[in-house]
Amino acid sequence: MKKIKSRRKVREPRFCFKTLSEVDVLDDGYKWRKYGQKVVKNTQHPRSYYRCTQDNCRVKKRVERLAEDPRMVITTYEGRHAHSPSHDTEESQAASNAQLNSDFFW
């Protein structure tokens, strides 16, 4: 009988940041889609799970509040982006158009 070699899943690198913030999701320049939320033991704040919306990007983000100090947000990134940060073209175009229009008011 042949022995089948099992492939080990390569674990992506993780980066963790603690931030003092009142909002849970901080703007990091990338677009994220929320795919889950979980109740965490010993805290009243849930943990949220996000994936990068860019095609072929497998980066995940986990956001939770610190149990000891709810003002602190812990953001954990798993993986590395293979693309530059997303810039919302509609917002940047609207801002540049507003700038152009404001230059014409005498």
Would you tell me the overall average pLDDT? Answer: 80
Shape: globular
Largest β-sheet summary: 5 strands, antiparallel
**Which secondary-structure class do the elements indicate?**
alpha+beta
Can you tell me the CATH superfamily of the domain at 14-82?
WRKY domain
Please, how many helices?
1
What CATH calls the topology of the domain at 14-82 is N-terminal domain of TfIIb
**Cα end-to-end separation:** 86 Å
Structural commentary:
The chain is of the alpha+beta class. The protein has a domain at 14-82: N-terminal domain of TfIIb (Single Sheet). The chain has one helix and five strands; from the N terminus they run βββββα. Strands 1-5-4-3-2 form a five-stranded antiparallel beta sheet, with no helix packed on it. A hairpin with a 7-residue loop joins strand 3 and strand 4 (60-65). Mean pLDDT is 80; it is low at 89-106.
Concise synopsis of the structure shown:
Helix content is 14%, strand content 31%. The C terminus is likely disordered.
Question: What is the fold's blueprint, element by element?
Answer:
Elements: E1 14-20, E2 32-38, E3 47-52, E4 60-65, E5 72-78, H1 89-103
Antiparallel strand pairs: 1-5, 2-3, 3-4, 4-5
Main traits of this protein?
globular, alpha+beta, DNA-binding transcription factor activity, 1 helix, N-terminal domain of TfIIb, 106 residues, 14% helix
